[in-house]
Amino acid sequence: MSTKPESHPHVVLWGVAKPPNAPSSSGFCQKLEVFLRFSGISYEVGETVPMKAPKGKVPFADIKHDGRTVTVADSHFIILYLIEKGLIKDPDTVAGLTPAQKGESRAWQAYIEEALYPAIVRDRWYIDENYAVTSEEIFGSMAWPIRPMISWFFRRRVMQSIWNIGAGRHSQEEAQTLQKEAFEALEARMSSRLYFHDSEQPTRIDLIVYGFLANTLATSGNPYWANMVFRSPTLLAFTKRMTSLLFPEYESLLRRIEEAEVLN
C-alpha cells in the first residue's frame, strides 16, 4: 500500500482571458476567484471560451482532490462543491451567521447577480460608445483582421443572452434605473460598517459584492454604474479594503479608487 501523502486540493478556474494584475472582464469569473483567493486553496486561472464550457458559459472549474479531478460548472455550484467537500471553509459558518442572515445574503446575491449585473452588462454591450471601450479592453491585443470579427461575434452572443434573460428588453433609462436602485440599496446597507452583516470578517455576500465591484470598477465600459460608485465613500472604502486584503496586485484598480477618493 502506498504511503505517498495525498496531494493538496487544486482548482483550475476556467474563464475568459484575464488581463494581468487586474480583475476579470467576467463578473462571475471574478467572483469565483475572490472566493478561491480568500479561502487560501491552491488554484490557477485558465483561459477558455464559453462555447467550450459544460453549460455554455464561464466559469467552470476542474477541481483536483482525493486522487481525482471533478469538473463543476457555474460559480455558485463550484463554491458549494468546495464547501460541501470540505475543501474550503464556509465564510458564513466561520462568521457565525444565523439562518436568517444566511437567507438575507442569498436574497442579496440573487439581486446582484440576476438584476443588477445584467443591467450593467447591457450598458457595456448595447450602448455603442460603451461597446467600443469594452471591445478595446477585451480584444484590443488581437491582430486586426481577427479582432473585429471576434468582437462582433461576442457582442452578438452577449446581446442575445442579455435579451433572453430580460435585461435586453429594457430601455437604457430603465436599465439604469435598476442600477441606481441597487446602488442606493447597497450603499445604505454597507454604510457605517466594515462588512455586510457587521461581522468581524467577510462572509459569502461580502465576497460576492466585492467580486462584482472589482469587475465593474476596473473597466471604463460601464460609466453610469462606475460613476455612482466612485462618488460613494462607503463603497470605495469597502472595495479598497478588500482589494488590499486579497488582490494587492490590482494596482490600477487601487489607483482609480484613490483618485476618486481625492475628488470626494
UniProtKB/TrEMBL annotation:
Start and end residues of each Thioredoxin-like fold domain: 28-130
GO cellular component, one term: cytoplasm
Listed Gene3D superfamilies: Glutaredoxin
Domain Metaxin glutathione S-transferase: 180-242
Domain of life: Eukaryota
InterPro entries: FAX/IsoI-like, Glutathione-S-Trfase_C_sf, Glutathione_S-Trfase, Metaxin_GST, Mito_Protein_Transport_Metaxin, Thioredoxin-like_fold, Thioredoxin-like_sf
Record family assignment: Belongs to the FAX family.
UniProt-recorded name of the protein: Glutathione transferase
Organism annotation: Suillus luteus UH-Slu-Lm8-n1
Classification lineage: Eukaryota, Fungi, Dikarya, Basidiomycota, Agaricomycotina
